[in-house]
């Protein structure tokens, strides 16, 4: 029985395919991949993706096109008005292509009004594209979305250059780097879970962070045992923050492999700088040449901060494929998604200056203030996707070691 239905299916497939030469058999697999990239494999929203693919055929920029794309993306990124990536993750490449096109329309129509916003639309577009990088990698450009990493990278690089020459990447400057406000209860939290016979990273982290915390009177929570053994380290990272936030006004998350390079500079100064932008500041974080980087960030103990954290944990806990659980960016993916949606789609049809695209509680700090990379690492990775401008981000407050 089994074999006869198998034969029958094979026969149908042969009929559907015009050429039968043995040399083309590998094409079968290829076609299956392309159909998956194209989102033609019964995601439940096939009509949506078919319509979108048709709409994304090259066309001149117009306000109408911008508005149609923006409202389509609202449906995709916030089905029924709820910020939930389920639909978008059903077709990450289609979502990515639509975001890319929206960024392009916005910049073409609004020029400098949309430089910041255009960059953030591209960041989100990259996030969705990278969601399937392990599955499809270099084959993206064979899909009907006609997109690939190179295309996004060069578009972002152009915008990044323009944004830099316009003096601002939307980040606040730290005017007084040794500012202190003794009333603020500030905690440093990290989670180190490395094999101590293979690396000294845990001991080095404890020593560097300990010395810095002691100097400034911050409490250090150097967590070395998992809360949840069967979960990935990044889940333990989020749980470490969640369990301790209520005891502080601000928690400063620092990855185990981040080091304080300049002990004079204070955490208070970062908060002070963010408050100069808005009293609502609740998540202070920096971007690198690629996108948001969650290697270090400050989270405020308030209703927004707690809710944001809880939603991030939810998004990492949801089963695949509707979660960011197995994405190589881990907690960075839900942080970006929740930080940018819905704000990245707001105000596009008004005549006002567009915000950079983040939720108003998110304040960007410059990379050199919060999470700069050592020059050697920047040089090593410069060839790939990273705008050369990154090389200027020196004089670090803390630095990424690129550890195991
Ligand atoms: C830890 O590292 C050592 C040395 O590299 C290795 O022999 C050992 O198997 C590792 N232990 C675990 C639990 O991975
Ligand atoms: C760890 O530190 C000790 C002494 O501080 C040193 O002897 C050892 O080689 C270091 N191990 C690694 C893996 O770096």
UniProtKB/TrEMBL annotation:
Gene3D superfamilies: Spore Coat Polysaccharide Biosynthesis Protein SpsA, Chain A. Residues 1-23 form the signal peptide. It holds the Pfam family Glyco_transf_34. Keywords: Glycosyltransferase, Signal, Transferase. It comes from the Eukaryota. Belongs to the glycosyltransferase 34 family. This is Uncharacterized protein. The lineage of its organism: Eukaryota, Sar, Alveolata, Dinophyceae, Suessiales.
């Amino acid at each position: 029985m089994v074999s006869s239905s198998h034969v029958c299916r094979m026969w149908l497939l042969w009929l559907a395919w015009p050429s039968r030469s043995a040399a083309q058999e590998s094409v079968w697999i290829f076609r299956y991949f392309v159909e998956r990239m194209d989102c033609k494999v019964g995601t439940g929203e096939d009509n949506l993706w078919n319509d979108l693919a048709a709409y994304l055929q090259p066309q001149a920029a117009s306000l109408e096109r911008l508005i149609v794309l923006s409202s389509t993306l609202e449906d995709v990124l916030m089905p029924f008005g709820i910020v939930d990536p389920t639909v978008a993750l059903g077709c990450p490449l289609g979502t990515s292509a639509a975001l890319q096109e929206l960024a392009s329309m916005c910049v073409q129509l609004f020029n400098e009004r949309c430089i910041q916003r255009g960059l953030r639309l591209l960041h989100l577009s990259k996030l969705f594209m990278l969601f399937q990088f392990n599955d499809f990698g270099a084959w993206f450009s064979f899909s009907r979305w006609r997109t690939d990493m190179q295309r996004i990278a060069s578009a972002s690089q152009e915008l990044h250059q323009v944004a830099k020459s316009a003096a601002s990447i939307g980040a606040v400057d730290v005017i007084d780097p040794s500012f202190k406000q003794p009333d603020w209860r500030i905690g440093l939290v990290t989670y180190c879970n490395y094999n101590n016979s293979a690396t000294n990273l845990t001991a080095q982290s404890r020593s560097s962070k300990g010395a810095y915390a002691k100097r400034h009177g911050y409490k250090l929570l150097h967590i070395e045992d998992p809360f949840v053994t069967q979960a990935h380290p990044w889940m333990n990272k989020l749980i470490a923050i969640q369990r301790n936030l209520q005891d502080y006004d601000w928690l400063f998350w620092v990855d185990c492999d981040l080091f304080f390079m300049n002990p004079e500079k204070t955490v208070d100064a970062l908060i002070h700088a963010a408050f100069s932008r808005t009293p609502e500041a609740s998540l202070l974080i920096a971007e690198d040449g690629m996108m948001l980087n969650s290697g270090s960030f400050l989270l405020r103990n308030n209703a927004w901060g707690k809710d944001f954290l809880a939603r991030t944990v939810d998004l990492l806990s949801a089963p695949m494929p509707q979660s960011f659980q197995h994405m190589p960016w881990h907690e960075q993916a839900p942080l970006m998604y929740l930080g940018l949606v819905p704000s990245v789609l707001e105000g596009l049809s008004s005549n006002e200056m567009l915000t950079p695209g983040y939720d108003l509680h998110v304040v960007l700090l410059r990379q050199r203030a919060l999470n700069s990379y050592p020059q050697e690492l920047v040089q090593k990775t410069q060839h790939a996707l990273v705008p050369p401008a990154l090389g200027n981000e020196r004089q670090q407050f803390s630095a990424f070691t690129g550890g195991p």
